[in-house]
Write a structure and sequence with these properties.
Structural class: mainly beta
Helix content: under 10%
Order of helices and strands: EHEEEHEEEHEEEEEEEEEEEEEEEE
Largest sheet: 5 strands, antiparallel
Low-confidence stretches: 1-36, 348-352, 354-379
Mean pLDDT: 78
Number of strands: 23
Number of helices: 3
Length: 379
């Protein structure tokens, strides 16, 4: 997963956020006093504003139309206080309990001035495990700022190092705290269509503007930024759900099993993203009141047509043969069909088909076998 937060200052947008942390305690020799900008004041209050990815007119991306529906809020945990370095225009950190030892386990030997971006990312993971209570024997910490809204200025903060946790306000902690396959902690927020994922981030306040190398560190020229603005960088996955096809009969003919075949395909997508066939078979009189199949792992918001393409040899559809449904995250949508026995015997059966989407050839009908095991494959 990519870096999850980027800095936006008054002058330009920083594309890599963690460098502010990796270089936050670098020291440089001061030029003559007449040439100096105002030196850092670690006693001055700082603020932080977190904006959504694509939240501004000039920063729109593919998430802009939906991320505002995910009910995202920010929790802010102070990990360390800022400590002025005597004789230099920079500051160091005094790590707070229970985060003591956080920077002593890295390859830099506890010297945060030598930490790389990846080491800062690792430190962010370790800080999150402590703050969220997922580390061994750790108890969840109370955030210094809890549930701040996106685009809300969190004011009157003390200078220092902060852990930023983005999460969904409508879900509990045991739902929004997740762990990836490689063991990384991430948090989520859900809209009706997508699950948004955020990695925890460490942010140093106050900050400096971006330099010509595209980096932020305390050795950069220019004024100290006491009112920082950062943009969330999110990954997202479609929320998955299901639909249910329900078949009911008014009468059951006992001579042969009654087979019904349904074609399910998307209706308004540029290039089909879903196309498959399903069957329901009745073979006992007790089943006439209803049988159903559940079609799972469908992206929420997908509009589908469910069409009964085969009604057995002895049944006629008494409802519409085609239904339009939209996959919903919060519930399983039903497409119900009813049939009546038409007092004729024509026999019948079904073929189990599988369709695959090939980028070169499009949707193709893959080999299937009928009820007697005969190959009816075609392309």
């Amino acid at each position: 997963m990519r870096d999850m937060i980027i800095f936006k200052t008054k002058k330009r947008l920083l594309l890599k956020a963690c460098t502010v942390l990796a270089l936050a305690a670098l020291v440089f020799i001061l030029p003559p006093a007449a040439c100096l900008a105002e030196t850092v004041d670690v006693t001055r209050p700082v603020s932080l504003t977190v904006k959504p990815a694509g939240g501004g007119e000039q920063d729109k991306n593919e998430f802009s139309d939906d991320i505002g529906n995910a009910h995202i809020v920010i929790d802010l945990y102070k990990v360390a206080d800022a400590k002025k370095v005597s004789g230099y225009d920079t500051y160091d950190f005094s790590v707070k309990e229970p985060y003591k030892g956080l920077f002593e386990k890295d390859d830099a030997g506890g010297d945060i001035t030598k930490m790389t971006n990846e080491q800062w990312r690792k430190a962010g993971q370790e800080a999150a495990a402590i703050a969220l209570g997922t580390a061994p024997e750790a108890q969840a910490q109370t955030p210094d700022v809890k549930g701040a809204g996106i685009d809300t200025k969190m004011s009157d903060l003390g200078a220092g190092l902060y852990l930023v946790i983005a999460r969904g306000s409508t879900i509990s902690s045991n739902e929004y705290i997740k762990t990836s396959e490689d063991g990384r902690i991430y948090t989520i927020a859900n809209s009706d269509l997508y699950e948004y994922r955020f990695e925890p981030e460490l942010v140093a306040l106050p900050s400096k503007d971006v330099n010509e190398a595209g980096q932020i560190n305390t050795a950069n020229t220019g004024e100290w930024i006491y009112d920082a603005v950062i943009y969330l960088k999110a990954a997202r996955e479609p929320v998955k759900s299901s639909i249910r096809i329900v078949k009911k009969l008014d009468k059951y003919e006992t001579k042969d099993p009654a087979t019904f075949v349904f074609h399910v395909f998307d209706t308004d997508t540029k290039g089909k993203v879903y196309d498959d066939y399903f069957s329901i078979v009745f073979d006992e009189p007790s089943e006439k009141d209803g049988k159903e199949i559940l079609i799972e792992d469908l992206p929420a918001g997908l509009k589908l047509t469910v069409e009964e393409t085969y009604s057995g040899g002895n049944y006629a559809v008494t409802t519409d043969k085609s239904r339009q449904v939209t996959v919903e995250a919060a519930q399983v949508v039903r497409a119900e069909f009813k049939n009546t026995y038409d007092d004729t015997y024509k026999g019948g059966g079904s073929i189990a088909n599988k369709f695959s989407n090939d980028t070169k050839n499009g949707w193709e009908w893959v080999q299937g076998l009928d009820d007697d095991g005969n190959d009816h494959a075609r392309k």
